[in-house]
Each structure stands twice: as structure tokens, then as C-alpha cells.
User: Which sequence fits this backbone?
């Protein structure tokens, strides 16, 4: 990272310019212009000022950011480094970095992740179109892109289409993605559902203003021998603005203001789908035609579940798996949710590898009871 062991301000600015070779390209929808995104804009503006060798502007921007958000450790670190460079106190700055390599390294990793996301020309609908083959009547869908350290929130608009309404920076497990066993400090990749809402007053301070537990491990995870529990979307401690990119025990962690929006403003209901993907791994085996997949699934359902209304069927391409699809729909009585995992066999014919069904009311009751037990444990993020 740039702000590290520089001999003078000119070298500092030159090093940042070498690392951040593109200009700032962040654009923000007015509907998303809340305090969290405004703060991110200011952060990226400061990094852009460094990139453009506007030293004094960078100092002013990060000083203001630290004043506005006293808990924002990254802002304080960059401000201190800039001021140390300007005053010729590089040795002191180097000593601080040397004595705190892990904490400093994590904060600078956050700066790099945020900058990298802002400067790439990303098609924000690409992930959604890749993985959500067909949505039924969900009010919301959450998509977490671990490669980008980003959560995208989609909401059904007045025309019936799912539209992206917000995106936010997130933290994932210390060891990255691809959770396989309890305690491996990784965030799972897959399609999950929210099973509860836990208010902050019922939780240790570590989890911030609240949490949204997920149903990890799902049936596919269990079939593949994956273990662990207590994978949540949750906030940050009261003395923290945001955590570095890889610092949780497997959960997806957001700024407390964002969690308040998810818990209150957007009123995310139980069973909301949450897709957790890793971009580097998402292209494995994705050779199927979307329309071809939907046509085959619809035909199969007509033959085997003729009572199912097609407009109530959801189809997801399952991340990090070879031509695997996850299909959900309510049963004929509407009191149970059917879960199916589909894959073609060696002869090219579809197989339903797993089909499970659970009573919606009973499921929520059991899951809330389970989540309550997990909530009582300090070691629930495994």
C-alpha cells in the first residue's frame, strides 16, 4: 500500500500514483445517497487526491473524515501518515507501521479494496443476471460479492422487475471464501435464506445494532459434508465504524447504519434469498442457456408437480458448482416451501439431486429457536 515507509511527501504521492493508476470513477444513484455512501465518496475522493498528487487536498479530506467519524480508523491512519510525511517524521511513521503490522495492513487492505471497486467499470446487474435465472414473488434479494467486498440489495419495483436499490461495502471471513467446516474462518458460497432478525439489545456488542441469521448449512452443504453454524449478516461493535475486508469468523459484516437500514427501512422479511458469490470461482461450468434451463425445469415441473404455478417458482444458478441449479416454490397448500437442487447427469438428462420440503410456520419456529440458542453463545461465528 502507498502510505508506507516513504522518505518525503513527493515519494509518498508518487507511490500512490503508481499503485492507483486509474482515475476515480465512482457514481452514486441519488436514491443511495445516505451517510454511508457519502462517507465512502469522501474516502475515495481523498484517495483520488493522493493519486492526482493533490497533497493538501488529501490531508484536508481525511482530516475532515476523521473528525466527522471519530471511529473510522482508516481515516485516522491515512491522516497521520500524510501529516508525518509533510512534517518530515517518516521514521516515526515507519516505527508505528512496524510495531502494528497486522492492524495497519488490514486497514490499508480496506483502502485498496474500496479503491479497486470504485475504479473498475462494473456492470452492477451482471452478477444478478448471472445467478438469478428467475425470481418469483420475493420483495427483496440480497447478493454478496465477496470478490468485491460488496453487498447489493435488489427490490421489486412497481413494474414487477427486481431493481438494484443500494450497494454497500462488507467484511468477510479472515480466511476468505469457501467455508467447509466449523471454525475454518471462511464465509460460505451458496444460496441461503434469512431465518430470523436479532435486535442489537439482545446481542453482545460485537454484533452491532442487529443481525440477520442465514440457514447455513443448507441441504446441499450437508450433502457435501460442510459443517458449522451461526453465519449471519450483522453490524460492528459500538467503537468501530467498519471492519477490514477479511476480519470476521465467517459472517458478512456491515456498517451499523447499513444494518439499521436492512433491519428497519427495507423491512427484509424472513426467507429472503441471499446469494453469496465469489467472482473468481463463479464461472465454473456455466455453459447452460438460461432459456433452455427454464424450459427444461418448467417441463419437468409440469410432469411431476402440475399443481405448481410457474410464476411462484424461483430458479438460481448455484455459485461455485458445475451446472447446479437451486429451485424453490411453495407446495399446493402454500404452507410449505419446496427446495430442489438440479444437475444434469452424464447422459445430459436432468436429475433432482435433493428435494426437501418444510412447513413455513414450523420451519421459522424451529429456526428462530435454533438461532436463539446460537445467539446466547459468544462463539457463534463459526
Assistant:
Amino acid at each position: 500500500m502507498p502510505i508506507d515507509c516513504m522518505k518525503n511527501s513527493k515519494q509518498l504521492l508518487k507511490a500512490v500514483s503508481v499503485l492507483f493508476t486509474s482515475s476515480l470513477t465512482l457514481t452514486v444513484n441519488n436514491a443511495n445517497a445516505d451517510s454511508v455512501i457519502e462517507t465512502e465518496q469522501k474516502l475515495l475522493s481523498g484517495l483520488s487526491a493522493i493519486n492526482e498528487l493533490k497533497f493538501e487536498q488529501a490531508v484536508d479530506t481525511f482530516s475532515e473524515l476523521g473528525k466527522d467519524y471519530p471511529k473510522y480508523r482508516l481515516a485516522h491512519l491515512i491522516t497521520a501518515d500524510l501529516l508525518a510525511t509533510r512534517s518530515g517524521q517518516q521514521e516515526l511513521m515507519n516505527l508505528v507501521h512496524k510495531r502494528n503490522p497486522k492492524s495497519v495492513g488490514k486497514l490499508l487492505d480496506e483502502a485498496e479494496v474500496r479503491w479497486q471497486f470504485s475504479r473498475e467499470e462494473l456492470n452492477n446487474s451482471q452478477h444478478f443476471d448471472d445467478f438469478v435465472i428467475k425470481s418469483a414473488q420475493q420483495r427483496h434479494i440480497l447478493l454478496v460479492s465477496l470478490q468485491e467486498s460488496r453487498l447489493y440489495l435488489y427490490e421489486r419495483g412497481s413494474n414487477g422487475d427486481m431493481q438494484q436499490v443500494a450497494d454497500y461495502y462488507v467484511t468477510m471471513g479472515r480466511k476468505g471464501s469457501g467455508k467447509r467446516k466449523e471454525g475454518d474462518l471462511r464465509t460460505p458460497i451458496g444460496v441461503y435464506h434469512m431465518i430470523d432478525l436479532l435486535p442489537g439489545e439482545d446481542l453482545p456488542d460485537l454484533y452491532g445494532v442487529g443481525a440477520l441469521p442465514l440457514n447455513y448449512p443448507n441441504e446441499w452443504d450437508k450433502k457435501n459434508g460442510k459443517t458449522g453454524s451461526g453465519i449471519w449478516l450483522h453490524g460492528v461493535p459500538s467503537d468501530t465504524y467498519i471492519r477490514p475486508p477479511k476480519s470476521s469468523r465467517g459472517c458478512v459484516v456491515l456498517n451499523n447504519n447499513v444494518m439499521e437500514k436492512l433491519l428497519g427501512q427495507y423491512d427484509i422479511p424472513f426467507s429472503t434469498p441471499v446469494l453469496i458469490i465469489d467472482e473468481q470461482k463463479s464461472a465454473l461450468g456455466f455453459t447452460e442457456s438460461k432459456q433452455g434451463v427454464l424450459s427444461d425445469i418448467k417441463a419437468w415441473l409440469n410432469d411431476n408437480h402440475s399443481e405448481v404455478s410457474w410464476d411462484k417458482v424461483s430458479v438460481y444458478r448455484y455459485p461455485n458448482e458445475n451446472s447446479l441449479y437451486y429451485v424453490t416454490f411453495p407446495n399446493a397448500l402454500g404452507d410449505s416451501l419446496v427446495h430442489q437442487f438440479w444437475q444434469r447427469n452424464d447422459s445430459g438428462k436432468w436429475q433432482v439431486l435433493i428435494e426437501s420440503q418444510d412447513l413455513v410456520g414450523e420451519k421459522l419456529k424451529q429456526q428462530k429457536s435454533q438461532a436463539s440458542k446460537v445467539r446466547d453463545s459468544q462463539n457463534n461465528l463459526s
Observations:
- Residues 151 and 168 are 5 Å apart (CA to CA).
- The longest helix spans residues 101-119.
